[in-house]
Structures are given as C-alpha cells and as structure tokens.
C-alpha cells in the first residue's frame, strides 16, 4: 500500500516536473515560439506575435495587426526556407510575399519585378536585449538598397514613461525611412517618366 501511494503521487506530480523543465529552457526556443502571444509597442505602433496554429497563408497568421509600412504584392506566399518555392522574378509584374523563420529572428518581406525595375521590402524582428524586441525595415528600389536604423519595441503594458527618449528615436527612425522611400519614389518617377 505504501508503494502504491508513492507511485500514485509520482504519477500526479511528474507532468509538473517536465513542464518546469520546459519553461526554464526559453533560451533554446525559436524566436516565434519564444514570443508567441506577446504584445509590443514602439511608442507609435503595437504588434502581437501570434502562436503558430495550422496553415500559415500570410503574414497576419503570425503577426498582427497588419503593419502599415509593409504591404503585400500580387503573387504567392512562401514560408522560407523552402526547397520547392521558386523565388525568381524573371517576368514583368510578378513577385512573391514571404516569411522566414530563424532561431533568432523573424523576417517578413516581399520581392517584386515591375515593368521597369526589381523592388523588395521587408522587416526583420530580433531580440538581443532583455525585454526589448528590435526590428530593421529594409528596401531595395530603383537606385539602391537601404534600411532603417534599429527600432526598439517594448512589452505592451510596461512603463513607457522611462522610454521617452527611445520612443522619440523610434519615431525619427520611422520618419527618416519613410522620407527616404518617398524621395526614392519621386526620383524614380523623374528618371523613368520625365523626358
């Protein structure tokens, strides 16, 4: 009877030990698994990383809400790396949207061949600081490839009054990137259409 009680007790508490061991090993989880169900703000925008469930058919299955600085293009959606996915853009007016899962980052991007030139745009999320997720927005346009400075995201609900300088820097970084993109589009239009 004594052994039976111990065995029963062991069966009841064994799942807690394996769960505890799993939660202690957060450093070995991939980026998306580590941050799934967490919400973040850069002072202007708010995002949530969603848990992976079922089929992923676009970016909004992984991160939401849709990011205003990353729109999708006509074409298929790929989850990379993928050996069967053809990411070449030899045709005109064709492209693809993609997500790349890595252990230490998450990338959302598109590549497109319009009638005149190749374009690409994306955002890469990563974390190399405690309680901070960072991202860099990149773009390949008519003249050159360029990217934003680092933008930091803080846990939603954290005391942002201590982060005013970083939030102002985030806003400036976003504004600088969008201004460069607007100048690029204007200069591209002049180059291609103003004869």
Question: Can you walk through the features of this model?
Answer:
The protein is of the alpha+beta class and 195 residues long. It has one domain. Helices cover 30% and strands 30% of the residues. It has 3 helices and 10 strands, in the order ααββββββββββα. It has helices at 2-24, 31-35, 164-193; strands at residues 39-41, 46-49, 63-64, 77-80, 94-101, 105-113, 118-129, 132-140, 145-147, 151-155. Strands 1, 2, 3, 4, 5, 6, 7, 8, 9 and 10 form a 10-stranded mixed β-sheet that branches. β7 and β8 form a beta hairpin. It starts with a helix and ends with a helix. Mean pLDDT is 82; it is low at 1-28.
Average of the residue pLDDT scores? 82
User: How far is it from the N-terminal to the C-terminal residue, by CA?
Assistant: 95 Å
Largest sheet entry:
10 strands, mixed
Q: In sequence order, what are the helices and strands, one letter per element?
A: HHEEEEEEEEEEH
What's the helical proportion of residues? Answer: 25-40%
**How many distinct beta strands?**
10
Question: Compute the gyration radius: what is it?
Answer: 22 Å
Helical stretch count?
3
Q: What class, by secondary structure content?
A: alpha+beta
How many domains? The number is: 1
Shape: flat
Question: Which parts are unreliable, with pLDDT below 50 for 5 consecutive residues or more?
Answer: 1-28
Which percent range describes the beta-strand content?
25-35%
